[in-house]
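The instructor's notes for this session suggest beginning with a concrete chain rather than abstract definitions. Hand out the sequence below and ask the class to guess, before any prediction is shown, which regions might be ordered.
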Amino acid sequence: MIDIDGYDAENWTRRANRRRLVVFLSVFVVVAAIGLAVDYLRPAVYEADARLNFATPSIQRLESAPAPGAVDERPFSVRDEVQYLSSRPLLAMVWERLKGASVPPPDHLSLVDPVSSLQAMLTVAPAGESRVVVLRARGGQPQFLAAYIDGLVAAYQESLAQRYKAASSSELVDVGEEARKLDDAVVAKRKEIDAFRARYNIVSVERDENQVLSEVKGTSTALNLANEKLVAAEGRVKALDDAQAAGRSVTRSRDNPTLAELEKQAATIRADLKEVARTFTPEYMDIDPKIRAQRARLADLEQQIVAQGQTSQNAAMQEARENLAGARATVASLRAQLASNQQAVQAFTSRFSEYEAMQAEVKRLEVLRQKAVERQAALDAESGSRRPQVQIVEGASVPTSPASPAYGRDAGIALGVALLAALATMGIVELFNRPPARPATIVVPQTWSPMGVGGPAFATLGAEPARRQLEAASETSRPAPALAAPTALPRELTSDELAALIEASDPGLRTAIVLLSIGVTPQEVVALRGEDFDRETGALRVDGRTIAVPPAASAAIATPDAPGNPLAADRNGAAFREATLDTRLLYVAHDAGIEQADEVTAAAVHHTYVAFLVRQGVRFTDLVGVVGDLRPDRLNAYASLAPGGPRRPLAEIETTPAALRGLPSA
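After discussion, reveal the predicted structure:
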């Protein structure tokens, strides 16, 4: 490789790779060794377990006998047995057996509280919602764990049998004593009831069969009937009074034979007169003696009917008043009789309530006695069948592989951590060992041998100093250093991107973009003042040169308020700074949706206009009169953009970019 600055890149790369390998392997080996040592130096932990099934679905609790006078019907609790399996009394029994077993317990158990150590090693828990209980022991000796679980199961079965036997005997005695006490209580209560009934003359447990209550009941019934008759009598009297006041007769003819006969005769005469009136005229009827006699008879009958009706009505009224008075007297007499018996009724009712309560108490005692007798008989008959059965679903076996820790998994984690630590350390080391800065070079391999010397060589872009170095390299058989790369040009914007940039800008920034788009450099834009631009002639004086501003661009340039003010000003009226101008262009580029907006700078906009003129073949002597002097490296870079053939004068090319044509005025 040719390096014109004498920079030995290959040697530096070899040293860097060697350093990276040493750092990586050192950190990886150390971290991996520590992790693997920590992993595999941990003691192995084994697990031995067994499963018990409590086959009896519901039995009496065995820990304590039921209290006298109560029936213990609580179901057998698996949770209680789980607690008992890990209790200190049971584990103490197991420890005594393990000390003399063929597999001795670990030595460290004897140095501390052995029962507490056994409790710490043991886990007892139900298997889900079933009646199966899992016993699991964890420790470092597989043979001892299996012996520990088997001994625990055997000790529990023996303890369960002993508890059942003691509880059954105690329960039978307690139930028999309870039955005897209840029987004595029933006999004593019955004697008390008989004495109470004789003392207060209680004939029967039926309330109505007792004399006092029977008399009161009869009086109450008679009083109710008397009240009904009294209401009927009062209604009758009121009806007669209302009829008499209205002038109506309340006596019916069927109830009075005399009145009925008179009305019958009167009705006959009226019928005869009505029949005669159909045959004779009224004048004839007035002079006919027979007819006149019938009329007189009818008038007399009507007077008799009225008199008889009044007599009947008076008699009915008198009878109704007498009935009312009799009903009232009867009600008053019954009420007085009922009131006189009220005190006796209350006293009897109180005693009868006590009697009923005593009867209920006897019945309750008899029920309890019957249950106690039945329970005693059931306990005696089921003494062998009620014993709870514990089935060993799965016995303990000696574990062959440790349950924890997971050596393989943890080893993989340790290696992964070692790898990450090595990579991270290598990256940190390389962060402080960067290669020295050197100019960018372009290496062009060639197959020809310069100056007639055989073997490969490298050609540059045709610069004379580089050619001399290649000739010297061929003479000394040393590779010539590479030439510096051409100057990189800023990004060139398209016409659409430039138009979008102008459209998204405010008036001050739009003026700056327009000035950059007609050849003004970013340094010159921030220095221009209002007096440097003549809008009438379109002449812009920039650093000793005059730029003819196109009419479309001239209309888009904002006019300052005063000649001394900046031509391109921000929103506050202050002149742009180069950094501020690039920042504002970045904002507007993002707003306009331009891709790679971070490359849109003032230099990029100015470069776009220079490239626009160069691509048309403008003469460089005319170009510098518009865009200012260019450094030789940039001029050489722009030369690669020019088309072949002779250059054209500025007057023969288009000087207004497409994005500036038809711009609205500021």
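Then share the key points. Residues 217-340 form one domain. The first strand starts at residue 46 and ends at 54.
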